[in-house]
Amino acid sequence: VGSEMCIRDSLLTAPRISAGVPTPIKYLGLSLGIIFFNALPAQEKKINHSNIIPSIQIEHTTSPLYRDPLFDGAADPSLVWDSTKNQWYMFYTQRRANMTKLKSVEYCYGTAIGIATSKNNGVTWEYSGVLSLPQPDDGLNTFWAPQVVYEASSKKYHMFVTYIKGVYVDWGGEPDIFHYESYNMEDWTFINKIGTQGCIDAYVFQLDNGQWKMWYKDQKRGSLTYTATSDDMLNWTHSNKNEGGNNPHEGPIIFKWKKKFWMITDMWEGLDIYSSKDTKNWEYNNTILGEPGTRPDDNINGRHADIVISNDNAYIVYFTHPGRIYFQNKEVYEESYRYRRSSIQIAELELVNDKMVCDRNKYYP
């Protein structure tokens, strides 16, 4: 653990890795395939319901889309287009999967927010280090599940991320949701904490009336999704209404597509989908990514995702634990690198008879 702290300290003091660090392709021998991006500047949209991309050719991508070259534990992806640099950012939880001396779920703590960037229209993704986020506590602490949203009026990026003081061997700690701001997605200023102790996985979305709404998992209320609203992303009014179903879950994401609002949650056996006309009342629609796929590293259920909208097409970016084994439909727990490692994947969403479906093998021979 001492050596890990030295690694983490060096990363925090140098949030951008030097150009000499190999890309995931060189490090892992992966071929990420081709994604053609031609994004509209975010500031042209008064209300940016998603990462708008005029063109994406998912049929040319390969599997997996990305793996973290340092710890091989990329999870909880969040994709954001930067029109000023003409590049993509992928922020993710950097789990310490290959640190085999860590016990139980300790590899899920002490995690930074990893960065991958694509400067060539998504043809390749390069590991770009970790974010150096200001925090109130010394030592090794924990960041989970980043979500970045662009505010056109101020030309600022806002990050909402789970923060936990310290490192735990079993699930524990007192998480809260921290709010950061940036003009360039590299240098971040701490703004405030939302004041939702026990809550994780915040997702912020701008409503049609310009108001901001936040969905998050409340671990103290049955691991269900609760919400808050704000006019300025600084002062939040919290609701006592559960949204997103009565089964425990995490990682709610919200987007607008095909004249409806959609919510996707991770219930650990696939992703549940809900639809709404007003972002207040939700109806269950379907469950996707619960059955194994045939692509490399896609042989298991999809987890905590993000959505990209392109030319009225919807693409889901999620992560998998491809090394996990099931026996009689029950997961076989191991304290091993194989069990812990995770990969980022991308697939297309479709509407069939008003049901949202996802054929993750659609473009794989």
User: How much is the radius of gyration in Å?
Assistant: 19 Å
Q: Approximately how much beta-strand content do the residues carry?
A: 35-45%
First-to-last CA distance: 43 Å
Number of strands: 23
Count of helical segments?
3
* Shape summary: globular
Task: Going across the biggest sheet, name each strand in turn.
Answer: 1-18-19-22-23
Derived structural class: mainly beta
The portion of residues assigned to helices is under 10%
Biggest sheet record: 5 strands, mixed
Multimerization status: single chain
Regions with pLDDT < 50 over 5+ consecutive residues?
Answer: 1-46, 48-52
Indicate the mean pLDDT: 85
H/E element sequence: HHEEEEEEEEEEEEEEEEEEEEEHEE
Name a few traits of the molecule.
23 strands, mainly beta, disordered N terminus, five-stranded mixed β-sheet, single chain, 41% strand, 365 residues, 6% helix
Quick summary of this structure?
The protein has 365 residues and is mainly beta. It is 6% helix and 41% strand. The protein has helices at residues 2-13, 24-28, 337-340; strands at 51-53, 74-82, 87-94, 112-118, 126-130, 142-151, 156-164, 176-182, 189-193, 199-206, 212-218, 224-230, 237-238, 250-257, 260-266, 271-276, 283-288, 303-310, 313-320, 325-327, 330-332, 343-352, 355-358.
